[in-house]
Amino acid sequence: MRRTIFYVAAAxxxxxxxxxxxxxQAVAPSEPLPLKEFxxxxxxxxxxxxxxxxxxxxxxxxxxxxxxxxxEEWENAESDALTLAQLAQALESPxxxxxxxxxxxxxxxFRAAAAAGADAAERKDFRALERAGEDINTQCVSCHLxxxxxxxxxxxxx
Length: 158
Known about the structure:
Blueprint: E1 4-6, H1 9-25, H2 35-52, E2 56-59, E3 62-65, H3 71-91, H4 101-123, H5 126-147
Helix pairs in contact: 2-3, 3-4, 4-5
């Protein structure tokens, strides 16, 4: 499955303006984020950064691949994958760990997929990076279906 990202210049400008305003008002939390916030603001954002490297991008200039081309881009892709692997460690900490054996299994699968992405980027192997990105997505969806199914599908209508 190939992710396609549609880019609208006006929306991007608005989003960056809102982000700048939010950053000015942001205050670092004094306590760990709740799990839902950690997943939505930290984990998801970092996964999206990695997925950008394997996405088919469609913007005002047409279609093009997000595939890393330069050494710097490959280094950034590796950094994005390593960040996800490190975030998996946070999910194993007492702060975020769920006391359910399925949690540990999901986190281990996610960590392994992220490590495979880092390895692929280090070797500049685009196909392996794509596979790792898909595996990361599969691991995320699988965990969501176990612990937060509402994230993957709307609740059934009554």
